[in-house]
Amino acid sequence: MAEKKSQKSNVVLRAQLRLMLGDEIAFGPGKADLLDAIRETGSISGAGKKMGMSYRRAWLLVDSMNRCFLEPLVDAAKGGANGGGTQLTDLGEKVLRDYRVLQQEIANITDKHFENLKPLLRDSPLSSEK
Amino acid sequence: MAEKKSQKSNVVLRAQLRLMLGDEIAFGPGKADLLDAIRETGSISGAGKKMGMSYRRAWLLVDSMNRCFLEPLVDAAKGGANGGGTQLTDLGEKVLRDYRVLQQEIANITDKHFENLKPLLRDSPLSSEK
After folding, report:
1. Chain A residues close to B22, C-beta within 8 Å
2. Which chain B residues have a beta carbon less than 8 Å from that of A105?
3. A86 and A98 in contact (C-beta within 8 Å)?
4. Buried-most residue among A78, B62, B71, B73 (CB within 10 A)?
5. Is A19 in contact with B26 (Cβ distance < 8 A)?
6. Residue B9 burial (CB < 10 Å; 0-12/13-18/19+)?
7. Residue of B nearest to A8 (CA)
8. A98 with B116: Cβ contact below 8 A
9. Is B5 an interface residue toward A (CB < 8 Å)?
10. What ipTM does the predicted assembly reach?
């Protein structure tokens, strides 16, 4: 998710990028962060913990990605006795890298527009009449 | 919402742009479409009908925008005996225009990346094992 906060710290222009395969989110901001965390921790459970989610939730997200792409993005089988734990596959590295580049390009564009939009907003919403 | 569909018609790269003021969505894809519909129909009820939402839902979205920006985006008071019904204010026109330009610029970027990502996906997700 590309976010740009203003000096009015409660104002954010958020661009959420989701790659949909039918009704399933093949890739999006949560899955990208999870891949980063798997690379950092070397395990699905460690990545889930880092992101404040259950092992089951993290596993389901990994399973979803692996079922949507032609090849898995995460290889949990590279562990074992001498293994380095769970790793991203080459495809996982590529998809994550492409997604981050796209996020950055979009952030560069939203930053410009945000400067124009932010002065038009109040500090906080007026109360609703209803 | 900027969407790019592939020849695999079930694959979409969706970029959802939301301008947040605290927890409230000051402006986003639904509100932009509603402003277009208000401009086209000249009324909140007509716009709601066109978008398949209740009058109450459409009114709440208009109220939300009007409470978040320094001035209202929609002026329901320009109607009356000789009035042209509900209209966008100058600020409403400006915000809608800026948002559509931003959407288009983002679509131009996502289109390029989508061409790279789409061949990596299956035609549909594999079934989950669980």
Report:
1. 10, 124-125
2. 109
3. no
4. B73
5. no
6. exposed
7. B21
8. yes
9. no
10. 0.81
Q: Amino acid identity, residue B22?
A: G
Confidence at residue B70, expressed as pLDDT on a 0 to 100 scale: 97
Mutate to test the interface with A, among B3, B11, B117, B129 (most CBs of A within 10 A): B117
Per the CB < 8 A criterion, the answer to whether B127 and A63 are in contact is no
* Among candidates A11, A15, A105 on the partner chain, residue whose Cβ is nearest the Cβ of B17: A15
Question: For residue B13, what are the contacts with CB-CB under 8 A and spacing of at least 6?
Answer: A17, A18, A19, A20, B3, B4, B110, B113, B114, B117, B118
Burial of A113 (0-12, 13-18, 19+ CB in 10 A): buried
A122 Cβ contact list (under 8 Å, min separation 6): B21, B67, B68, B69, B70
What letter represents residue B2's amino acid? A
What pairs with residue B16 in β-bridges? A16
Cα B27 to Cα B123: distance, rounded to the nearest angstrom: 34
Tell me the whole-structure pTM to 2 decimals.
Answer: 0.82
Say whether residue A107 is in contact with chain B using an 8 A CB cutoff.
no
Residue B24 in contact with partner chain A when CB distance is under 8 A: yes
Digit-coded pLDDT (tens) for A34-61: 999 999 999 999 999 999 999 999 999 9
Residues in chain B: 130
CB contact under 8 A, B121 and A26: yes
- Ranges of chain B whose pLDDT falls below 70: 1-9, 77-84, 129-130
Question: For position A40, what pLDDT does the model report?
Answer: 96
Q: Where are the alpha helices (DSSP H) in chain A?
A: 29-41, 44-50, 55-68, 90-117
Q: Beta strands of chain B (E only): which ranges? A: 2-5, 11-21, 24-27, 74-75, 87-88
